[in-house]
Amino acid sequence: MAVAVAVATAATGLAGTAFAGPSTGVERSAASATSTATLVVEAARTAAFAHASATGVSHGDELHAQDVLLDPEGARHVRFVRTHNGLPVLGGDLVVHLNRQLAYAGVTRAADHAVKPATTSAKLTAGQAAAKAAQAAKGDAGSAQLVLDARDGAATLAYQVTVTDKGSASTVVVDAVTGKVRSNTPVADEFLSPKLIDTLRKRGETVDPATGTASGSGSAGLAGSGVSGATSYPATAHGTGKTLFVGNVGLTTTATSRGHYQLKDPTRYGTEVRDAKNRKTESFGSGTKFTNTTDVWGNGTTTSRASAAADAQFGITKTLDFYKSTFNRKGIANNSKAARGMVHWGNKVGNAFWDPTCNCMLYGDGDGSVFKKPLVVLDVTGHELTHGVVEATAKLEPTFVDDRGNQYGEPGALNESLADIFGSNVEFYAKNAKDTPDYLIGEKLGLAQKFLRRLDHPSLDKLEGTVDYWSTDTYYTEVHAGSGVSSHAYYLLAEGSGKKTIGTVNYNSPTFNGSTVKGIGRTKATAIFYRALTRYMVSTTDFHDARVATLKAAKDLYGATSTEYKTVDKAWAAVNVTAANTPAARH
């Protein structure tokens, strides 16, 4: 099993300054890092079994490393998934933390119990389970695989089945003894929930954002078509994207031969956007390459199929650059592989998706009634690709999904929140003159309320009913609506409470307890949330767990007595997430 290895260094700040932290480091060579990582994995695995009462591992468990993080101050973190007697364990993921001497320093675990199923004998056959899954998800079922489902406080023998229907897919888990459907979760993460789309239709609201209004350069150093000193092909070229939403921007492309170009970036692992030709395909290889005899892509309107592709390519490369320059993250999965996207996906699809099956972004053109334009705006791309980052790290999952496909529960809401947080940071990083950075999400979509969600005062979003503060009801809140809790905490940590004008946007962030929070700045707040995601979050992390995770991250970066650490605690208290009101464990 391939293991992603990251050697953390002193991260570059969002504005080109270093993240303030207690330590720095020098990046190791790849060979050295891999060798070190092997030792760290073995030490972490040994420590997990030696500290079984804390880690929850037991006889019959095997731990498979997914990710290794080597921090310059000496901490080591190994993310594991688990099998038990050869069966994959859902909700069995954990992160083992070690110190510089590779001694056990703690654990972050999804399941708070040992994996000990009451029975290992299935009453349903694989075929019967597949039939139940197909009925539940209304599609064609693949083969049923026996697993152990440890997500609800016990370990239950179950079948896991992938069900596909017209280019979409769901993962269905069926109890192998009772036949009950335990979960039915869409594989792709939709930017717009079914609930939101229904709300817009009921309101009769049409979303038709302006396009083609920006003729000037939205990117410094815009270059025309050209290949500098190329003597062989393929070669790196510098072209122009005439986008729908961010003006004319520079794009790094590939010259395949003299006078022939492809929309593929060789300087960013071969990152590429293709045309799905209005098919619902999850195979990137089946997409049509964008090629041209000039290195100019699109015309700023939807009359050119390449216009949406230029937006998507710009958004994807800026998202990659943000993660690379800020956290030294090499690609979405931190494995130095291409990020990919397909535009014109499906026929009359008013949505955009991160699709783990395709391992790429999928952009619809709009449904023609509610949504009139392709969903290729910059923060949508940053949001959706961050779901890819979460998929490669904590794998935060909704706790349940209704029969319309709406997702519920705090881990899923935290996933949406992180996508909004880092999606807005992509805007700040890109500094595009036609899409000025802000703490608003979807402000370019053309909605009547002028944005979809906002981080400073989430409940101003009346479309989704986003919440400002945590309550016991949050567990049962649709994930986009529930995302306001941690998004609000992040904004308070970064910018503080009360009135503030940033760029052209006026903010006024309230607090649950009437407290005043003084922000520590976006750079530090983002560093804390990223470190928390990659080191201290797992698939079942809820908002109270996220509070603990961000406190641990702040302690790592700035110390337990620091202003940064204390402000993290204040920011969570200001959204009603405290140690005192932590609910009894549900998982």
Q: Uncertain spans, ≥5 residues at pLDDT below 50? A: 9-28, 216-223
The CATH H-level homologous superfamily of the largest domain: Neutral Protease Domain 2
Tell me the structural class.
alpha+beta
Question: Can you count the beta strands?
Answer: 29
Q: What does the largest sheet look like?
A: 11 strands, mixed
Q: Give the DSSP E fraction (strand runs of 2 or more residues).
A: 15-25%
CATH topology label of the largest domain: Neutral Protease, domain 2
How much helix, percentage-wise, in residues? 25-40%
Please tell me the CATH architecture of the largest domain by its name: Orthogonal Bundle
Cofactor: Zn(2+)
Domain PepSY: 123-182
GO molecular function, one term: metalloendopeptidase activity
Biased composition (Gly residues): 218-227
Question: Would you write up a description of this structure?
Answer:
Belongs to the peptidase M4 family. Its cofactor is Zn(2+). This protein is α+β, with helices and mostly antiparallel strands and 587 residues long. It has four domains: 36-109, Nuclear Transport Factor 2, Chain: A, CATH 3.10.450; 126-187, Roll (Nuclear Transport Factor 2, Chain: A); 197-209 and 234-377, Elastase, domain 1; 393-586, Neutral Protease, domain 2 (Orthogonal Bundle), CATH 1.10.390.10. The chain is built from twelve helices and 29 strands. The strands form six sheets. Strands 1, 2, 3, 4, 5, 6, 7, 8, 9, 10 and 11 form an eleven-stranded mixed β-sheet that branches. Strands 12, 16, 17, 18, 21, 22 and 23 form a seven-stranded mixed β-sheet that branches. Strand 14 (248-257) and strand 15 form a beta hairpin. Helix 5 crosses helix 7, helix 9 (484-495) packs across helix 10 (522-536) and helix 10 packs across helix 11 (543-558). It is globular, with a radius of gyration of 23 Å. The protein starts with a strand and ends in a 14-residue tail after the last helix. Residues 9-28 and 216-223 have low confidence and may be disordered.
